[in-house]
TrEMBL record:
Highest taxon, organism lineage: Bacteria
Name of the featured protein: FadR family transcriptional regulator
Pfam family for this entry, one: GntR
Keyword tags: DNA-binding, Transcription, Transcription regulation
Record flagged with keyword DNA-binding: yes
Organism: Micromonospora costi
Domain HTH gntR-type: 14-82
SMART domains in alphabetical order: FCD, HTH_GNTR
GO molecular function: DNA binding; DNA-binding transcription factor activity
Lineage of origin: Bacteria, Bacillati, Actinomycetota, Actinomycetes, Micromonosporales
Length: 227
């Protein structure tokens, strides 16, 4: 049907995509979709933003390339960062630099556990318990890929309990490299000698013991002798 003389002009497609990217960024930065959360489905975004499917698809793809969103097959699209630092960090922390990845993990995770012991809320403790239970269930089931993801969810819950938004954003930016380092450590198989008990770390956070929480968080990230 031809557009009537009173209808507003339709912006060019490129402009619509840029505007949609900006709207998605605004909602992420406003905390509507926090780091670690799943964004609405494509049909839901189409309805909420008032644009077509192709526009939404291109905008989401642009934010994936920027390292802000991550598409997980069969699960949905998740917010992994509130900025565009993630791809830069991911390029630096490649599989051939795993020693550096472990050192970065230690820097983040030890301090996060220490702060979490000081700042955790009842809601944080519930999230930690749920994440720990899911991690152990994945281990018992022998599902390596599921275990890697569950382990990351637990560590993200620790970081969230630290209540330091900048720490959470930086930690999210190295998520791909952390996932790679853990998958490499597992070697695709969940064998008994590779199991690390995180219940003591969670107990220390619950007890409000920052030094013990930091010690437990760092115990499994010690560099190999001679490294």
């Amino acid at each position: 049907m031809p557009r009537s003389a009173d209808s507003p002009p339709v912006p060019p497609r490129g402009q619509r995509i840029r505007e949609t990217i900006a709207q998605l960024r605004e909602r992420i930065l406003a905390g509507e979709w926090p780091v670690g959360s799943r964004i609405p489905t494509e049909p839901q975004l189409v309805a909420a933003l008032g644009v077509g499917r192709n526009t939404v698809r291109e905008a989401v793809r642009a934010l994936q390339h920027a390292g802000v969103l991550e598409c997980r097959q069969g699960s949905g699209t998740y917010v992994v960062s509130t900025d565009e630092l993630a791809p830069v960090v991911a390029r630096r922390l490649t599989d051939d630099r795993m020693t550096e990845v472990i050192e970065v993990r230690r820097a983040f995770e030890v301090e996060a556990a220490r702060l979490a012991a000081l700042r955790r809320t009842p809601e944080d403790l519930a999230a930690l318990d749920d994440a720990l239970a899911a991690r152990e269930a994945a281990w018992r089931g022998g599902r390596a890929e599921e275990f890697v993801e569950a382990d990351l969810v637990l560590h993200r819950a620790v970081v969230a309990a630290a209540h330091n938004p900048m720490l959470a954003e930086l930690y999210a930016s190295v998520g791909t490299a952390l996932r790679s380092s853990l998958a490499q450590a597992m070697g695709g198989a969940l064998t008994p000698e590779r199991h690390v008990d995180h219940s003591r770390m969670v107990d220390a956070i619950r007890a409000g013991d920052p030094e013990r929480a930091a010690r437990e968080a760092g115990a499994f990230l010690e560099p190999p002798a001679g490294a």
